[in-house]
Structures are given as C-alpha cells and as structure tokens.
Amino acid sequence: MQQTIDTREIINVYYGTTSGNSSRLAFQFADEATQHKFIPKVFNLKEFNPDVFIQTRLNIFFVSTYGVGGPTSDAIDFHNWLQSKDRKQNELQGVHFTVFALGNTKHEHFCGMGLKTDARLEELGATRIFQLGKGNSCDETTDNDYSVWVESGLFAALEALSPLVTVPANQVQSSIYKIKEFNNIDVVVGETLSFQAQKYKDSHSLKIIEIKELRKAPSPGNSTLYLSLESQNIPYKAAQNIGIYPENSEEYIQEICTMLNLDPQYIFQIETKGNHPFPTPISVHNYLKKYCDFLGPITKKQLYTLSQLVDDQKAKEELKFVSSHKGREEYDTNYLQTRQCFFHLVKKYNIRNISLQQLIELCPLISPRYFTIASSPLKNPNKIEIIASELLINKERLGLCSQFLRNVKAGQEIKCFLQDSAFLLPQNPQAPILLLGIGAGLAPMRAFIQEKDEFIEQNKLDQSPFKGPMTLFFGCRTMNDYLFKEELEEYEKNGTLNQLKVAFSREGQQIRITNYLDVEFLNQFLESGGVIYVCGSTQMGRDVQIAIENMFKQARKVMPYLAYRKVNELEEQKIFVKELWG
Ligand SMILES: Cc1cc2nc3c(=O)[nH]c(=O)nc-3n(C[C@H](O)[C@H](O)[C@H](O)COP(=O)(O)O)c2cc1C
Q1: Which residues line ligand 1 (CB under 6 A)?
Q2: 92 backbone dihedrals φ, ψ, rounded to 5°
Q3: Hey, which of 123, 425, 450, 484 would disulfide with 376, CB 3.0 to 4.6 Å?
Q4: Strand order in the sheet with 369-372
Q5: The Flavodoxin-like domain covers which part of the protein (predicted)?
Q6: Are residues 39 and 140 located together in one domain of the fold?
Q7: Would the ipTM clear 0.95, i.e. be above it?
Q8: Whose C-alpha lies nearest to ligand 1, atom 2?
C-alpha cells in the first residue's frame, strides 16, 4: 500500500540581511513551519523571482533596515521591483503575505524597510495573513520579539488558510540533510548551494600584506588593528564596505571535536533535495573552521535540542523552559544578554551525543563581519586598508572575528567581498566637508582624506570630488588611542585637511567631538552648502543629530517638533551621512 502523509502548502520564506539576524529568524521560522507540516522554502531576497513569488500563495518576509530606513544590499533589487511605478494596481492579488521587520530603535526610521514592504504589498492587492511584527536589536530583544509575534497567533492564521491534506509520501519534498561518508572513488556531482554558501564561494581570497596594532597601550577589548590586503586589481572605492568571513580557531575546533567525538579528518558529503548548506565533500575540520557558527548567540532551537540531549534533569527543564514562549524573559536576560553560545552550553552541560548531522542543522553558517575601507584606491591601487576594533564579550572572550584577526598572519589569505557603503562621494564637489569620527570610525574619513590628498599631489585638485575645504573632528579616549596621529597632522600641515581637531574624552579637558558642534558653527557650515559625514557609535550619531536639531531650533527658529524632520531631510538629501554601529 502506498504510504501517505499529512501536509500543508509551500511557504516561501524571504530574508534580507546584513549581519545575519533576518536569516537566522527565517531559518528558525522554516523549522517551526515544518513542525506545523508546512513546506517552507527559504530564499535570500537577492534570489527573489517575481514569477515564483506571484505563483506562490503563502509568503513571509524577514527584512532588516539599513541606511535611512532602507533595504539591506541584498534586498535592493527586490525593493526597487516592489516600489517601482511599473507595478500595476492589484498586481499581487491572490498573494498572501506577512512581514517581520527588523530594526533598532536607536536608529531613525525604526524598521523602515519592513514597514514600507508591508504597506506596499497591501497597496498592490496582496492579502495580509497576519499583522506586521517588529524586532528591535537595541537591547538584543529581536529573537524574543519574534517569538512573541509567532505566539500571538501566526501559525493559527497560517493553518486557517492552509488546512492539512493527505498526499502520497513521495510527493513531499524533504530538505533534511543526510550525511554520507565520501570515498575518493565517488563522483562529485555539481551541487546547488544555498545563497549564503554561494556568496562565500564567490567571494575573493585576498592576501594579508601587513597586520599590526594601532594603539599605544592595547589590552584585550581595547585594541585596534590595522590590516592591509593585496587588492589583486579588484576595483574598489574609498570608504566602501568590506565583508570579511572570520574562521573558528584551531583550539575551538579541537575542543568541539573532542567534546562531540568527531574525527576532524572525516570527509563527508551531504545528500539533500534542497540547496546544499555549504560545498562538499569537506572534512569535519574544514566545515568547523569555515562554516559552522557555534559561537554566535544561542537560538531557541539550539536550546530545545540541548534540552532533549542533556542528562541532568534540572538542566533539561531549565533549557526546555527558556526555549519556550513562557521562558522568553529568562532567555533574554540569562542567555542573550549574557551572550551564551552553543559551544559553551555543550561544554557546560557536558553534552556528548550530538551527531554531525544535528550540528549542521543546528548551527547557522558563519556570517561576514563588515568594515569600512580606510584607504583610497587612488593612493593605494594595490592594497585595501582596514581598521578593526576588538570586541571582548563578557570581559572574558574575544568575539569570533576579533579572535580570527588576532590569529591571522601576513601572507595568509582571507575570504572577503566588497559592497557600497553609505559613504558616497558628495554630489557637489565644491561642498565643504565635515568629517566626524570616533575610534575605528576614522576609517572612511581617512579614505576620503587620502582621496583628496592624492588629487592635490598629482596637481589635479580641479578634478577632485573634494574641491572644497575639509575638516576632521576625531574623538578618542586618550592620546594612546590617537590613531594615525602623524599622518593626520601631516595632512593638516600640507593643507589637505583645512582643520583637524582631536577630542580626548578621558584625558585633559575630557571633551567629545560634539563639543565642537556649536549652533553658530553648524549653521554657517550648512548655510555654505556643507556635507557632514559621521562614523562611530549609534550614541555618537544621536548626539550629532541632537546638535543639528538644536541648530535648527536656535539659529533658524524652526519649531521644536519640526527640527527632527529637518535633520531627516538633510539625511535624505545626503547632506548628513551616517554609518553607525553598536
Ligand atoms: C549601518 C546600519 C544602519 C542601520 N539603519 C537602521 C535604520 O535606519 N532603522 C532601523 O530600524 N534599524 C537600522 N539598523 C539596525 C538593523 O536593522 C538591525 O540591527 C537588524 O537586527 C539587523 O538585521 P540583520 O542582521 O538581518 O542585518 C541599522 C544597522 C546598521 C549596522
């Protein structure tokens, strides 16, 4: 007798991400949808195909916001397609959707991209299955916000639309991986890789020319590295973003192999009807090194699986509880905020019985870390320079990328790719330029200064995108953190920088760069058609925003409630350009 199975419809799960939050939730949702007997298909928005979208009834979007309430770079084509005037009224009739928007309340336009997507889908005639959800990464509550959203009835709404049907078992596509030992005699057939794995595969391998510490008295967590990479004739732009794929260290790989009794030399292939999560055949060692993110924030799916595997009854209950909706506050305070990860919990609870297949299903791929290029291709056509601050987690362990960069040596190659940042050249080359940076936020400023300096050196200032006066206000804690001191002072001496001011927040007068932004100065600067570039912490971005608002209120007598809008207008006109983190 033919075997049958109860199932529901296909759901397309789309995500647009930069740092991995949206993709993590998209895959988590896919896992939960499978338990509810749906057939999820996960796509990065770069792979968005309008025909597939319109033909599939159920669609869910996980979209994060970047820039001024805009899309992540992988979602730009989708965003342009959706918002295009070419779209016809009711073009999306029959399509059902729901959106989970990711953002951060420290940024303006909170969840802007999700809100725009949600509103436009409805405008084009698509039916909203469930109200928009919002995840706020400000206090790292995104994952909890997601579970609250799901628990408030998402699956009930989906199930009402798509009742169970009984079909022959062989009609249901399975995306579960099967691990198979690779023998040298096996013929390797071309695999279709997941979007993220393909992006990794297509990225460049750039050789490190030099790596050194920039601070005078570094300590763990208070270190800033300088890296130069051979650009291998890959065209790059000043202040562009570079995504670097970090790798797990040998110590961690050895330890996890010992804990889980995995043979690092074992070479395996993956059998799946879906996309392959990474290229195979591969050794366990290389999988753990390049792809397996076992040090990232612990997910509820990981906690649930660990609860099933741990022997200790108390631990079992605790892990199960925090993986549930009821335990969301404990999950947030005791696991997310304390930066717990899969590796440390496996170690803490002495869990040994996790198979390679489970590991692959539980741990996401290592995501790239983004930096802003600190050099100009005109001055340095053969090298890309980067400034990287070190991240210390819980005052005890370095973040994955920080430990990776600590261990790499000159001559070694690293995987990376380039993409545009918010720091585009000014539209008016005559515009006065004000560069505001703190710490490693000096990177894009240095790239622009180098660019201008090169035009001056070649006696071609008339062709430069920076013909107007250029001012740099740089903030650091103490003289020990004053990065590129001699170089910056030289740029001031030779006239590339018309003004250089350095604010030390923990030394001397203990001031911040915002102390230089008084009402009169900002008013005159903006009246003269100036452009302001800011790079550093979100707090600093907010302080600069407040300084500009005050200028509007006091110098231009703008009503307080309109001052905020005025600053937004400056952002939209690319007169106030920010790239912030943290
Ligand atoms: C450079 C930058 C710009 C951002 N701009 C916004 C924004 O305008 N509005 C917002 O709500 N969140 C903004 N965010 C926050 C992200 O959307 C949020 O952290 C999200 O969880 C990231 O998801 P991802 O890991 O999938 O990229 C920004 C984050 C960065 C790093």
Answers
A1: 17-22, 64-69, 72, 102-104, 107-112, 137, 142, 579-581
A2: -105, 20
A3: 450
A4: 369-372, 241-244, 413-419, 204-213, 224-230, 383-389
A5: 11-154
A6: yes
A7: yes
A8: 66
